């Protein structure tokens, strides 16, 4: 068996070669770089009792002296672990040194000298390479109530950002198949919110303010061309008219360009821990200039999450929902993200057709689901809005001209079964065909097919015994029968 002094020195040498990866440390630091001036601290009698149980066991189990070479190496690793854990828990290095010097390595004067050096060296290395854990700061959230206080509180009802299109301060998606003009829609939304002009020339903007576009889909030249065409169609952008009055030229200049901000930088992504703070620096500068932000648009989602498995709910929740909600909470604004539909989905509901995890659909508070219209050609689309707190009204858009100018026509579309059910809920469970016509803005000839489908699917029932003045049958939601 080795002499005690030689054994302690051999074990001290293993500190250099010990695998420190478990503690996130780097091995091989030279002893001369360490501060060995650590004084042993006198331990209180109840010191051991205050430690976590896992650490108590480590210290107690290590009190027996090592006998074999393997036990010696295990003891070295155990001492290293104890020193690191004590420092992480916030104890000063002298406490760790006191624990290690009580080990049973020491027997005889020379062994005590080498053992003390070993303990000093182990403690110094642990202190140099270990950061004390910070205790989490516990703050009671502001939005907590007793049941009585909650029922007595006054909350603002949901309000429209764009009527029938998007609710204020909502997060959601503009999703559809490729080449169904999703980017045109989101650019029109942003310019409408920034300028106060009706979205698509048909839907009133109820809250006007700064709009921000984070665009990763198209080159800057394409983006600029599209914005210029939409701006010109809305009455701002290029000079609108120039006339000669005698010898004077009169030019009618448009209103100033609305408060719209655009980013095409690839650095702004959702799944990079440094990207969101950097994005906030830019957004903070916009708030400093204008006071607030009303709307943030991101296009498209798949280029904003580069390392996320979009099919995994946990990753989507962490790297999509969390940063989007952080932006919404900080800037008190609405957020719309352009996304794509799955090629293999045949669901009748637009939200279920989105590519990726089903939690994307569950998370959306406002949404526009876009598909190519069954009739009308490539430029004709059907848009299915969806909200958590409002009845949707589907509509159609015909992109008449996009090459030379921005020319569109908007029509009310055939409502979906979900839209019919949502309207009946909003109407108290019953409604007539006249009520449906007034709400959806489409003739009864269009409504009859969806009402027939709703009757066949047992979504609604026709109550012939219950009629309004004029003999109109009442249609009732099945769950209210």
Secondary-structure map:
Blueprint: H1 4-17, H2 47-50, H3 53-61, H4 69-88, H5 93-101, H6 109-129, H7 147-152, E1 160-162, E2 166-167, E3 171-176, H8 182-195, E4 211-215, H9 220-234, E5 241-245, E6 248-252, E7 260-263, H10 275-290, E8 295-299, H11 313-331, E9 334-340, H12 359-363, E10 366-372, E11 380-387, E12 395-401, E13 407-412, H13 417-426, E14 430-431, H14 433-440, H15 444-456, E15 460-467, E16 473-477
Parallel strand pairs: 3-9, 3-10, 4-7, 4-8, 8-9
Antiparallel strand pairs: 1-2, 5-6, 10-11, 11-12, 12-13, 14-16, 15-16
Helix pairs in contact: 1-4, 1-6, 4-5, 4-6, 5-6, 8-9
β-strand number? 16
Q: Main β-sheet: number of strands, strand sense, barrel status?
A: 9 strands, mixed
List low-pLDDT spans. 1-32, 63-73, 104-112, 466-471
CATH class of the largest domain, named Alpha Beta
Strand content: 15-25%
**Which strands sit side by side, in order, in the main sheet?**
7-4-8-9-3-10-11-12-13
Q: Kindly report how far apart the N and C termini lie.
A: 90 Å
Q: Helicity range of the residues?
A: 25-40%
Radius of gyration: 34 Å
Helical run tally:
15
Explain this structure to me?
The strands form four sheets. Strands 7-4-8-9-3-10-11-12-13 form a nine-stranded mixed sheet, with helices on both faces. It has three domains: 4-129, no CATH class; 160-410, P-loop containing nucleotide triphosphate hydrolases (Rossmann fold, 3-Layer(aba) Sandwich); 414-481, Orthogonal Bundle (Arc Repressor Mutant, subunit A), CATH 1.10.10. A hairpin with a 2-residue loop joins strand 5 (241-245) and strand 6. Helix 1 runs parallel beside helix 6. The longest helix has 21 residues, at 109-129. Residues 1-32, 63-73, 104-112 and 466-471 have low confidence and may be disordered. It is an alpha/beta fold and 481 residues long. 38% of the residues lie in helices and 18% in strands. The N and C termini lie far apart (90 Å).
């Amino acid at each position: 068996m080795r002499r005690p002094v030689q054994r302690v020195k051999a074990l001290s040498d293993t500190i250099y070669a010990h695998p420190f990866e478990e503690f996130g440390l780097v091995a091989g630091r030279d002893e001369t770089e360490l501060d060995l001036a650590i004084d042993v601290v006198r331990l209180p009698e109840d010191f051991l009792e205050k430690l976590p149980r896992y650490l108590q066991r480590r210290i107690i189990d290590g009190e027996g002296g090592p006998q074999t070479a393997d036990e010696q190496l295990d003891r070295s690793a155990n001492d290293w672990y104890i020193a690191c854990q004590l420092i992480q828990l916030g104890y000063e290095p002298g406490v760790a040194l006191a624990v290690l010097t009580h080990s049973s390595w020491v027997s005889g004067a020379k062994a005590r000298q080498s053992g003390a050096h070993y303990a000093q060296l182990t403690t110094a290395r642990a202190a140099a390479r270990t950061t004390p854990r910070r205790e989490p700061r516990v703050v009671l959230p502001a939005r907590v109530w007793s049941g009585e206080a909650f029922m007595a509180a006054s909350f603002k009802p949901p309000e429209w950002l764009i009527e029938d299109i998007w609710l204020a301060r909502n997060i959601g998606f503009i999703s559809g198949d490729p080449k169904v003009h999703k980017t045109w829609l989101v650019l029109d939304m942003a310019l409408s919110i920034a300028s106060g002009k009706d979205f698509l020339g048909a839907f009133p903007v109820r809250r006007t303010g700064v709009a921000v576009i984070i665009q990763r889909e198209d080159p800057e030249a394409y983006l600029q061309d599209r914005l210029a065409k939409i701006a010109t169609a809305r009455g701002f952008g290029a000079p609108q008219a120039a006339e000669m009055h005698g010898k004077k030229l009169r030019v009618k200049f448009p209103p100033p360009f609305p408060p719209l901000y655009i980013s095409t930088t690839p650095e702004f992504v959702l799944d990079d821990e440094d990207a969101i703070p950097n994005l906030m620096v830019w957004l903070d500068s916009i708030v400093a200039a204008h006071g607030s932000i009303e709307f943030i648009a991101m296009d498209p989602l798949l280029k904003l999450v580069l390392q996320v498995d979009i099919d995994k709910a946990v990753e989507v929740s962490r790297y999509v929902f969390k940063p989007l909600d952080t932006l919404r909470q900080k800037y008190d604004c609405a957020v719309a993200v352009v996304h794509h539909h799955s090629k293999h989905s045949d669901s009748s509901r637009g939200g279920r057709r989105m590519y990726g995890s089903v939690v994307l659909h569950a998370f959306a508070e406002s949404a526009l689901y876009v598909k190519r219209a069954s009739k009308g050609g490539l430029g004709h689309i059907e848009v299915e809005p969806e909200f958590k707190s409002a009845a949707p009204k589907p509509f159609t858009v015909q992109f008449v001209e996009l090459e030379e100018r921005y020319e569109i026509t908007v029509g009310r579309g055939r409502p979906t079964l979900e839209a019919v059910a949502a309207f009946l809920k909003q109407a108290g469970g019953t409604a007539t065909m006249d009520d449906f016509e007034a709400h959806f803005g489409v003739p009864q000839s269009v409504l009859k097919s969806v009402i027939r489908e709703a009757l066949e699917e047992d979504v609604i029932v026709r109550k012939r015994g219950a009629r309004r003045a004029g003999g109109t049958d009442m249609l009732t939601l099945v769950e209210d029968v």
